[in-house]
Design a protein that fits this description.
Blueprint: H1 4-12, E1 16-29, E2 32-38, H2 42-46, E3 53-60, E4 63-70, E5 72-75, E6 80-86, H3 91-98, E7 104-109, E8 123-128, H4 133-142, E9 148-154, E10 171-177, H5 183-197, E11 203-208, H6 211-224, E12 232-234
Length: about 240
């Protein structure tokens, strides 16, 4: 399958193409599926860093469609990792539901850079949802002893059973039901964040929700709370219909 104009752009931006092979899959919940893959030599070439992601190519009615997914438990020595899919309508979820051992999928690695804050922050404040769960876990794994508050937006009752890698000694989870297209999450974070920030120089805020929610919170944190740009990492992971 060709990658269309997006693939041409990624090539010009020095994107590297790989082919992954499915080795197995498991249903985490009825709305969340994990697919295990071999990496086609990618990890040995590129190495691994926290929240590392790839652009995976899916067939969408005969046209190429790419979506970004965070690597779960990448193992460079074995050349393996997993991808996790928050299931909904769409070609990526359709592929994940049907994925079987031996299936292959093409991917492009480009634009994935992220560096763990150095020095480590005194407090980590995380806002996400099932789509960003793999990245949240990767971030918490990277700084396991940093106190963290995590606002996790849920759309289904089974989302409460998703495998967040929490350490009760260091992590506080605040489950927020999705209401009003994410506005409820924005209100909850705004109400709590000023008191939690403390010394803004020691805080680090990481946000990955739908694009509208991410933009609203980022604007609030930068403009109203005055957090420096290098203390905020924000990326819209999906768009509302």
């Amino acid at each position: 399958m060709g990658h269309g104009w997006e693939g041409v752009v990624l090539k010009l931006m020095r994107g590297k193409d790989f082919e992954f092979t499915v080795t197995g899959a498991e249903e985490v919940t009825e709305h969340f599926r994990r697919v295990h893959l071999t990496d086609g030599g990618m990890l040995a070439l590129t190495g691994v860093h926290p929240t590392m992601w790839v652009r995976v190519w899916f067939d969408n009615g005969g046209k190429p469609h790419q979506r970004a997914y965070t690597l779960v438990d990448p193992d460079p020595a074995a050349g393996t990792f997993s991808l996790e899919f928050a299931l909904h309508d769409g070609c990526a979820s359709d592929w994940a539901r049907k994925a079987e051992p031996g299936d292959t999928i093409e991917a492009t690695l480009q634009g994935t850079g992220f560096a763990t804050p150095d020095p480590q922050p005194a407090r980590l404040l995380v806002v996400g949802d099932p789509a960003s769960l793999p990245a949240i876990n990767s971030l918490l794994d990277a700084v396991p002893r940093v106190p963290a508050t995590i606002w996790f937006e849920t759309s289904h009752e089974s989302d409460h059973n998703l495998p967040l890698r929490l350490d009760p000694a260091h992590h506080e989870l605040r489950g927020i039901p999705r209401r009003d297209a994410g506005a409820h999450l924005v209100d909850e974070v705004k109400a709590a964040l000023p008191a939690l920030l403390g010394d803004t120089a020691g805080a680090y805020v990481w946000i990955a929700c739908d694009t509208t929610t991410t933009r609203a919170l980022t604007t609030y944190i930068r403009k109203e709370l005055g957090l420096p740009k290098d203390r905020v990492n924000a990326l819209g992971y999906w768009r509302t219909a």
